[in-house]
Amino acid sequence: MDDLRALLSRLATELTDALNDLRALSRGLPPAVLAQDGLSPALRSLARRSAVPVDLKIELDTERFEEPVEVAVYYVASEALTNAAKHAYASRAEVSVKHRDGWLELTVSDDGRGGANASHGSGLAGLAERVEAVGGTLQIESAPDAGTAIRAQLPARRPSDARLTTTPP
User: Fold this and answer.
1) Distance set, CA 105 to CA 63, 70, 100, 128, 136 (Å)
2) What are the strands of the beta sheet with 103-110, ordered from one edge?
3) Is 147 left (phi over 0), alpha (psi -120 to 50) or beta?
4) What pLDDT band is residue 169 in, cutting at 50, 70 and 90?
5) Which part of the chain is the Histidine kinase/HSP90-like ATPase domain (predicted)?
6) What does 67-115 look like in DSSP terms, one character per residue?
7) CATH architecture of 2-155
8) How far is Cα 88 from Cα 126, in angstroms, rounded to an integer?
């Protein structure tokens, strides 16, 4: 009985967190865990709540980046995981984020049915716009029956960095 109570308590907490994230999204605000704790905790929370099991790999040498960059990374990962479950019927996904040479590199891949196309819906096109708005690039690889890989490269500016316009490697 104690195990059931613990499970129900955990589920209630996760549902409350998801509802709070949805409310923040509807107001154009970043999710609370992202705003308060940063990218790594936010991605861990996202992976825990995903409908698809997620292998999460985080290689960051700093806790915080500029808010628009963190928000873009979070929403690319969130949309990609939602698509993996909802459209690709994936059984697994992997989220990898690395900080290298002044860039954040995010890759979200799944083992789903593939065939994703940014021109067939506003979700992926919106992600590309969000990433480009902070000076990044987004690539989608999604052959039919071969899963999907979404890669984003974004400038890894810290909150105190001056705004720089550069091109990803």
Assistant:
1) 15, 12, 7, 14, 10
2) 54-59, 93-100, 103-110, 148-155, 137-141
3) left
4) low
5) 68-158
6) HHHHHHHHHHHHHHHHHHHHTS--S-EEEEEEEETTEEEEEEEE-S---
7) 2-Layer Sandwich (3.30)
8) 18
> For the residues 121-146, what does the mean pLDDT come to?
90
Write down the domain spans for the chain: 2-155
Residue 3 in tokens:
């195990």
Specify whether the backbone of 135 is left (phi greater than 0), alpha (psi in -120 to 50) or beta: left
List the single range of 3-17, 99-113, 129-143 with lowest mean pLDDT. 3-17
pLDDT at 62 over 70: yes
